[in-house]
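Hey, can you fold this one?
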Amino acid sequence: MTKTKLLFTAMSLALVAWMGASAASAQNGPSISVSPTYVAEAGEATFTVTGSGWTVSASNVGTCNIPADADLAEIDASAHCSNLANLDIGNLTAAPVTDGGFEVSHTVNVPEQGVFIVAGDLARTQTAGPILITVGTPDTDDDMDDMDDDMDDDMDDMDDDMMDDDMDDMDDDMMDDDMGDMSDDMMDDDMLAETGSNSTSMAIIAVAVVLAGAMLVGLSRRLRTQ
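Sure. Predicted structure:
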């Protein structure tokens, strides 16, 4: 085998090995996570950056700037941060890799439009990110406010229902009492009416008895006189 063939074979094997490494890196490549992913207001802030799946001995955590007039919806973050002109080379944090991972604190001056955090070794053999950092609290606060409002509305509805039920019960009780009182009054009036009628009848009978007695006395006297 000639030297040319040996060189060609070596180059072919190196290319195959590089492609295999690239495929493995794509499948199990390095990654980073950042906490927190937002700040309440623009300004200097410190973030915890955690890396995993790294095969290089050392990496760096950096910042990828976003133009002030940029529309985030139109930015391809990967392509944008692959451009060295968008990277803040003056703000790098060394991230020594141990057992394929690292955890470092990275301080960034976050502008109003936000910023990306990225990681990679100097040779850019491995890179990860970008992770977007935004300014302002997430929409979860609005969701919580909506939930609180819904709960308040539900409590108000429950209070209204309970009050309506109580009023209905009070109305029913009052109506029952009024009907009971009316029934009692009517029965009392009937009894009084019947008692008065009986008294009148007894008075008439008494008068008749007295008259009958007087007539008997008068008749006895007449018989004695004769």
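Residues 208 and 214 are 10 Å apart (CA to CA). Let me know if you want another pass with a different chain boundary.
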